[in-house]
Design brief:
Blueprint (H helix, E strand, L loop, with lengths): L15 E5 L3 H7 L4 H22 L3 E8 L7 H17 L1 H7 L1 E6 L7 H14 L5 E9 L1 H17 L10 H5 L12 E4 L18 E4 L9 H12 L10
Parallel strand pairs: 1-2, 1-5, 2-4, 3-4, 5-6
Bound molecules: farnesyl diphosphate.
């Protein structure tokens, strides 16, 4: 897909942006609010981010909403998050329709509660023909679990004789991740002053540009988004080659 480019031919806008929405808990703590209030503010900010992405011409936005490790959180926080996902999927739909947003999920959906799975099915189905922006929620997602999932499905094909061990290549593995049609993220943003990927998009991030900031996720605004995109536009991406 052609991207807006500068005179040197470098893509200046990411085709695919991924965001680790970190810092909700600290945002709430600073306001003497419960952690779930921070997640609610984070969800509101996700709506703003979708608008910014649509306006900027980004076609895929993946956000880390719940990791395979997040089940370790206190049960009341986990259930507040699950309720928030359902509320988001239902209440945001009219706005998503206006913005041309298709909703997709990446992760182990089978491990989510029934009511969340049902809300996901409905939201995916309602939005499947929208084309302006794909919003991908990483839910019950882990990069290592995704690689295990891909390896298992390839192994089954090798066992049944559909594939031979020699057929296993990077390109083949790529077709067995959760969403094989989605291109790798060009830029990954992590706010809140942490400098790690936390098991997010491990396979896909091999050549992603990274951008960090100290702002907590609910406070991440248009100015921060613009700074991240300007920084991305100035990067020299060589993918292991030379100029
Ligand atoms: C990390 O911040 C955030 C999460 C584990 C949850 C992310 C979820 C949302 C932003 C809710 C909205 C999402 C959707 C899809 C409606 P943290 O709680 O670990 O923050 P802390 O490091 O400050 O404690």
């Amino acid at each position: 897909m052609p991207r807006p480019s500068d005179s040197s031919g470098k893509a200046s806008v990411p085709l695919h942006l991924a965001v680790i929405m970190d810092g909700n808990g600290r945002w709430a703590k600073r306001r003497l609010l419960p952690r779930k209030a921070g997640h609610r503010a984070g969800a509101r900010n996700l709506r703003r981010l979708c608008q910014m992405c649509g306006d900027a011409g980004i076609k895929y936005l993946t956000v880390y909403a719940f990791s395979t490790e997040n089940w370790k959180r206190p049960p009341d926080e986990v259930s507040a998050l699950m309720a928030l996902f359902i509320e988001f999927l239902q209440s945001y739909d009219a706005e998503m329709e206006k913005e041309g947003i298709r909703l997709r999920i990446m992760g182990d959906v089978a491990g989510l509660p029934d009511d969340v799975r049902q809300a996901i099915r409905e939201a995916e189905d309602r939005s499947k023909d929208r084309t302006r922006l794909q919003l991908i929620l990483a839910l019950n997602y882990g990069g290592r679990a995704e690689i295990v999932h891909a390896v298992k499905s390839i192994s089954e094909k090798v066992s049944s004789g559909e594939l031979a061990a020699e057929d296993i290549t990077e390109d083949l593995l790529k077709t067995h991740v959760y969403l094989p049609d989605v291109p790798d993220p060009d830029l990954i943003i992590r706010p809140s002053g942490e400098y790690r990927l936390s098991n997010f998009l491990l396979w896909q991030s091999a050549y992603s540009e990274l951008w960090f900031s100290n702002v907590l996720w609910p406070d991440f605004k248009q100015r921060d988004f613009d700074q991240a995109l300007s920084s991305f536009a100035a990067r020299d991406r060589r993918f292991g080659g030379v100029k």
